């Protein structure tokens, strides 16, 4: 059985993990959270030789979606996600860029399809369930494959930390509830990648993450 391959492309001054996830056999896959530096993302796509089928978005913060519209225009593929609760964030990307003093090139996001809890997406031929996990952002979603015991958690949970909740729409209690009710039940053996920094396993975070123990 073919497995998925992953290449992380750090982008923007926030060093966000734009992630290429693709089937190692036919090289078909997706780009998750192209936050900016579109030229760098396209170089990685060319170097890996993947055929991008969709652009997936975990949530509407600028470092995760700022380059999505430009990449869509260049690749001719749909943007899927996040949850519609992030519609206001997605429509304010250009304002976010001004707030952070970033250069031009960041565009407001208009997805082709919003996602809801219980939806599914296909990544490299594998079915991933969609979990709505608010707290870091109102419309944050997580992608999980039970078959592969693998998840992309965006900015919900990091190795040794959790997503910040001091940004507009953030709420600490809601984020902790999302982690405990949606993420931890994925199972200790489930490995994950996240929006910043290295990935890990759910079990490791359950036992050692200071926000959870």
Structure, described:
- Helix 1 (38-48) links the parallel strand 3 (28-32) and strand 4.
- The termini are far apart.
- The chain has 213 residues and is α/β, with parallel strands linked by helices.
- The model has no long low-confidence stretch (mean pLDDT 96).
- The strands form three sheets. It has a six-stranded mixed beta sheet with strand order 1-2-3-4-5-6, with helices on one face. It has a six-stranded mixed beta sheet with strand order 7-8-9-10-13-14. A two-stranded antiparallel sheet has the order 11-12.
- It is globular.
- Helices cover 25% and strands 30% of the residues.
- It has seven helices and 14 strands.
- It has one domain: Ribonuclease Z/Hydroxyacylglutathione hydrolase-like (Metallo-beta-lactamase, Chain A), CATH 3.60.15.
Give the topology, please.
Layout lengths: L3 E8 L4 E8 L4 E5 L5 H11 L2 E6 L5 H4 L2 H8 L2 E6 L3 H4 L2 H8 L12 E3 L4 E4 L2 E7 L8 E5 L4 E3 L4 E2 L2 E2 L9 H12 L7 E3 L6 E2 H7 L5
Parallel strand pairs: 3-4, 4-5, 5-6, 10-13
Antiparallel strand pairs: 1-2, 2-3, 7-8, 8-9, 9-10, 11-12, 13-14
What's a quick, concise take on this entry?
This protein is α/β, with parallel strands linked by helices.
Structural class, from helix and strand content? alpha/beta
Ends apart, CA distance between termini = 37 Å
Q: How do the helices and strands follow one another from N- to C-terminus? A: EEEHEHHEHHEEEEEEEHEEH
* Strand residue content: 25-35%
